[in-house]
Automatic annotation (TrEMBL):
PANTHER family: ANTI-SIGMA-F FACTOR RSBW, ANTI-SIGMA-F FACTOR RSBW-RELATED
InterPro entries attached to this UniProt entry: Anti-sigma-factor_SerPK, HATPase_C_sf, HATPase_dom
Ranges in a coiled coil: none
Nucleotide-binding is among the record's keywords: yes
GO molecular function, one term: ATP binding
UniProt protein name: ATP-binding protein
The organism's place on the tree of life at top rank: Bacteria
Spans through the membrane: none
UniProt biased composition (Basic and acidic residues): 147-160
C-alpha cells in the first residue's frame, strides 16, 4: 500500500498501512503538521500514537488500511483515526498492574478535552479526540508545559486549571 496524503490548509490526513510502521508514520506525519501549524506537539503526538496503535492492534483487517485526519478549526485540534473494525468499539478498561497494554485510552482521556467513537460507514468506526487550544483547557495545560520547558521559564511554576471530568461519546 502506498501512503496517501491529503493536505489542505487546516486539514491534514493520511491513509496508511495497518502495521506498526504505519502507526509510527502517523505519529511522525502528525508531529510535522502540528509543528507547522505552530502548536505544541507532545500531547497531540501521544494521542495520535495511541489511537493509531489501537487501530493497528485492535482494528486491523488483513489487507485493509487505517486513516487519520487532523483538523484545526475554531481553536480546536481534532484528531480522528478510522479503521475497518466497526464491530470493536474501544473502551477504557482497568489494566492489570503488570500488563504491558491496556492504558492507551487512559492517556487519550488524560490529554484530550473530549474523545469518542463514531460508527460507520460500515464496516468502519472513527475514534476521535479533541484538544481545545483556549485557556483553561487540557490543551492549554499542554502549551504551558511546553513553555515551562523553555530555559527562560525555568523556576517558574505553571498554574494548572482543574481538569474537567471525562467527556466521552459513542454514536
Amino acid at each position: 500500500m502506498n501512503t496517501q496524503i491529503c493536505d489542505s490548509g487546516h486539514c491534514f490526513g493520511a491513509q496508511l498501512a495497518a502495521t506498526p510502521r504505519g502507526a509510527r508514520q502517523a505519529r511522525q506525519l502528525a508531529v510535522e503538521k502540528i509543528a507547522e501549524w505552530g502548536l505544541p506537539t507532545e500531547g497531540p503526538a501521544l494521542i495520535v500514537a495511541e489511537l493509531a496503535a489501537n487501530a493497528v492492534s485492535h482494528g486491523r483487517v488483513p489487507g485493509r488500511d487505517f486513516r487519520f485526519v487532523l483538523t484545526l478549526a475554531d481553536g480546536v485540534l481534532r484528531i480522528e483515526v478510522a479503521d475497518t473494525r466497526g464491530d470493536r468499539i474501544p473502551r477504557i478498561r482497568d489494566a492489570e498492574g503488570s500488563a504491558e497494554g491496556g492504558r492507551g485510552l487512559v492517556l487519550v482521556e488524560a490529554l484530550a478535552d473530549r474523545w469518542g467513537v463514531r460508527r460507520g460507514p460500515v464496516p468502519c468506526k472513527v475514534v476521535w479526540a479533541e484538544v481545545f487550544l483556549a485557556t483553561g483547557s487540557r490543551g492549554s495545560v499542554l502549551r504551558r508545559a511546553q513553555t515551562h520547558k523553555d530555559p527562560k521559564n525555568r523556576g517558574k511554576e505553571p498554574t494548572h486549571p482543574a481538569k474537567p471530568g471525562p467527556r466521552r461519546s459513542v454514536g
